[in-house]
């Protein structure tokens, strides 16, 4: 891949040199002492990144984000139970479909594309079901819906569920390690993600942390989930690795776990303004998002989602009137940068998406390359845009 382009889609993302180095080694045995240490330490680092308590259980499983979603669904609800899905787009709809396929009765509280339901609407849905004697058993939400860039208020939603003694599950695939999430203090029960976005590793790992309450929910299921996604199979393996003992149920993706460890080590060692850890790393994502957003505005681009709801990790941007989407994306690519098209069903042709997470957030030259590529292509396609002003605005916010 000699003419490799800068990858600015909402995952997979550019990787740091340390993660690339970790990937270069020959795959270790899953029971080699060095690997056992790396696996155990990665589980511990996940608790830090997730803000999870000591009694929670982290899982690192070979698979994609969709597998992590499936594991969450399969382990906490079963046929005949009820779940409320906060539907903010393509991936929430996928979660609802998974629940239905499991025989779960699904209620949805949604909003038009680019918006999110209010907390009041969510609480009303929960309370009216309770009053009708059809109380929900669990609530599912997508922290950042990658199809629109909408971020929900995960803290408020988790607390609303917790106050009602209800299990809450958050899909953090486009959020974890780029958006604030404090699993324990917010009372959230499952926070799941995949390795290829703000976690900063290649695709291929499903990552989840289950709270004690979520672990209990699995124990009380009337019928066990399929074996490969059953946390009862996986928990003893994770516990063994954390106790620095080798164990086997199904072969872990050893090379990817090494890359994950390199990435989680960087995330938890992140330093800014004299502070260290996941907090400053998230603040850096926010700074980067603010810079990118200011640059988009200077180019005359509008967000697809409501500005107040826009995520740290990506921007969804409307094609300006008269600009052809396919030509815009091709022109950006010709300038060495890859961005993504729209994804919201039926609205794909209205906007494009730019990821800004992980390694690039503190690399002003890469962010500037992206803004320049978008800006110059807009101009080439007849949209008047002041590229230098956009770059100056970006520089003011992210340096460089
Ligand atoms: N949820 C969200 C919010 C996502 O963005 C994605 C992937 N883009 C998924 C779930 C599914 O992850 P994967 O493609 O790794 O299966």
Automatic annotation (TrEMBL):
Entry keywords, A to Z: Aminotransferase, Pyridoxal phosphate, Transferase
Statement: the UniProt record of this protein carries the keyword Iron: no
Entry-linked InterPro entries: Aminotrans_V_dom (IPR000192), PyrdxlP-dep_Trfase (IPR015424), PyrdxlP-dep_Trfase_major (IPR015421), PyrdxlP-dep_Trfase_small (IPR015422), SP_NH2Trfase/AEP_transaminase (IPR024169)
Cofactor field: pyridoxal 5'-phosphate
The keyword Kinase is assigned to this record: no
UniProt binding sites for substrate: 353
GO molecular function, one term: L-serine-pyruvate transaminase activity
Aminotransferase class V domain residues: 36-220
GO biological process, one term: glycine biosynthetic process, by transamination of glyoxylate
Modified residues (N6-(pyridoxal phosphate)lysine): 197
Gene3D superfamilies documented for this protein: Aspartate Aminotransferase, domain 1, Type I PLP-dependent aspartate aminotransferase-like (Major domain)
Family: Belongs to the class-V pyridoxal-phosphate-dependent aminotransferase family.
Protein name as it appears in the record: Alanine--glyoxylate aminotransferase family protein
